[in-house]
Specification:
By secondary structure, the chain is of the alpha+beta class. It contains five helices and 15 strands. The longest helix is centred in the last third of the chain and has 20 residues.
Length: 251
């Protein structure tokens, strides 16, 4: 589940200017990629032109982008280029590396030691950049409801560990840090919601990518009563928020 964790005004404009993605003091990105950045996710693969690295000039580079908050509390732009050869984390075995890189294993939930601290991480392999993507599971935002169905503690735990969660209406979904939406599903659309300060914050996901190794259901447009109820609730909430001068979250 993705929700904006960064403010657009905090984006390092100068860093985007250096890679030709800033125009008139604003980020020159599509809405989909901009929302991914603000949610702490990666963009889709972009082609960057006329880059410089010291004395080296790069005519063009295919890469994904993300934002990271540094120790000073400011946002840094991270560039994830397409690597010729993947560099695996030292805490992965050869067998784990092979299975992730080949796609035999979609992701791997593992407890590792980073900077002397034990952390539970979710490891994925991004074939588009030839890179291992590491996510601290504590940073994964888990929805409380999907399509108006409350998730059980077991379902929430599965989502946080990168496993597929299935609802009573047949909807299946899975967290993925490789995806700009942070989620994939057997449905094209779904509505997720999160309890914040006693109220629900809704997110409408549209045009979701299919689950790894699968295709969307042939009846993916045949949505459940819960989906339409959640969609209606979201619209009602948006009206109320506009009346209060606030906007509901939407994807």
């Amino acid at each position: 589940m993705t929700q904006e964790i960064f403010e657009e005004e905090d984006i390092p404009i100068a860093e985007f200017e250096n890679i030709g993605l800033s125009k008139d003091g604003r980020i020159d990105l599509g809405e989909h990629d901009l929302k991914a950045l603000l949610a702490g996710m990666r963009t889709d693969t972009l082609r960057l032109h006329n880059l410089t690295d010291g004395d080296i000039k790069i005519l063009h580079l295919d890469a994904k982008l993300s934002l990271h908050r540094n120790e000073q509390g400011n946002l840094d732009l991270l560039i994830h280029p397409v690597y010729r050869r993947p560099k695996a984390p030292e805490y992965l075995t050869d067998d784990e590396v092979e299975k992730l890189a080949s796609g035999e294993t979609v992701n791997l939930d593992k407890t590792v030691e980073i900077d002397g601290v034990k952390r539970e991480v979710l490891i994925e392999f991004d074939k588009e950049t030839n890179e291992f993507v590491i996510t601290d599971t504590e940073r994964i935002l888990v929805p409380d409801y999907v399509n108006d169905e409350e998730l059980t503690p077991e379902q929430k735990a599965r989502f946080k560990k990168g496993k597929v969660v299935e609802l009573q209406d047949g909807t299946k979904f899975q967290f993925s840090a490789k995806d700009p939406n942070g989620i994939r599903s057997n449905k094209l659309h779904l509505v997720a919601s999160l309890l914040i300060d006693g109220g629900l914050s809704y997110l409408l996901y549209k045009g979701l990518k299919a689950l790894p190794g699968q295709k969307h259901d042939k009846v993916s447009e045949d949505y459940s009563r819960g989906y339409y109820q959640a969609l209606e609730d979201m619209k009602v909430r948006e009206v109320k928020d506009r009346m209060k001068g606030h906007n509901a979250y939407s994807r």
